[in-house]
Every structure is written in C-alpha cells, then in structure tokens.
Model the fold of this input.
Amino acid sequence: MTDVQYLTNWFTPKISDHDAVYSTSSISDRRLRVIRRDGVQLSIAPIRTETLTPPLVEAILREDEATIICLVPKTAHYLWSARERANELGSDVQTMSEVFWSMAEDDPQGFLSKDVDSTRRILGQHSRVQQVQMVCESSMTLIRKGGMASVTVSVEYGYEFGEESLVKALGRHPGVDVVLNSNPSGRATSAALEHAEHAGVRLLSLAELMGVINNP
Done:
C-alpha cells in the first residue's frame, strides 16, 4: 500500500503519555496494543495518508485487525464512507485528536469530535433539515425539505476566526457553502468576512446558520 505510511513508532510515546493509558506494547511495525487503566485493551493502527478511503481501510484491515485506524496528520481527511466501511469490518476510523479524546470513553469506538457531533445533532433537529449526510470527519451536507438546495458545511473552531483560518478551512474543504465557527464565544474578523464574500461562501456561527437554513 504505497498510499499509506505507518507511524507506529512515532505514535506510541504520544499515546503512552495519556492519563487514561496504563501501558502500550508493539504488536508489529503497523499495530500497537494499548491497555487503559480501566483494563480495556485495544489495538491501534496509526497511519499517514492524504485521504483515507474505503479501499484503503479494507487493505489495512486485511493485514491485521485494529480496534481503531488512527489518521495522524491534521491536514489529512477520512471520508465518512471509509469510517462506515471500517465499522462494517468491526473497526473504526478516527483522527489523532479523536483517539486521544476517546481514551476516556467507555467504548473508544464510535467517538466523533464533540464540536462536529454536537453540530450534526443540532442541525439535524432543524425543522427545515430532512437529513444530515456526513462527508468527512468535519464536513457535512444538509439535505433540506421542500426541494430547497442542499447546504454543505465545514465545521471549524476558533476564538478570533481570521482570514488565515478561513483560507485553511477552504483549502481543506473546497466546495463548501458555509464555513461554520462552532465556538459559541468565537467571532469572525472583518478580513475573514470580506474574504468569504469574495470566495462565494458564508462564514457563520451556529446560531446564524440555523437562521440561514430557513432561506431558499
């Protein structure tokens, strides 16, 4: 698999420092075993790839089982369909941040970034939204009722959401209609708002997006 690089040796000392982790040990150069302080054991496959797809998930799990396939680089993506395929095969796909948060969960599988998960849940309850379709780990498409156009949203998080943050978001999620700052205390700078207007996207808070969804 030339599209996947394993980062087991690099990842092991990182996860070993987690407060919930009792011990780690090498299974192979592509897997490590983690034993949590509560006795839960899991195997993790830490990888680097630009975009994790269902075929890559299948190839990784053909080599050996894994409780979680961990996508390490912050700039990388996993397609939601890749995560669904991993679930079908008894595994899961998470970002490195999600893996670290999931260590405190009763069941580490199935954990999704809290910012993304809460946004998905709230938007899914909107009276105009028929369905929320996840695209990747932090973007989703809102299928609206009554034949209204769908809206694709990138979920970001920042306090002062500046032009640089917007450029990074658009680079990671080209083609979105809305860049959402999910931080309820966050604010967008004037430069970011101007850039968004020129780029043909909306830079909104969750409250603002809830209102915009009502419009055709």
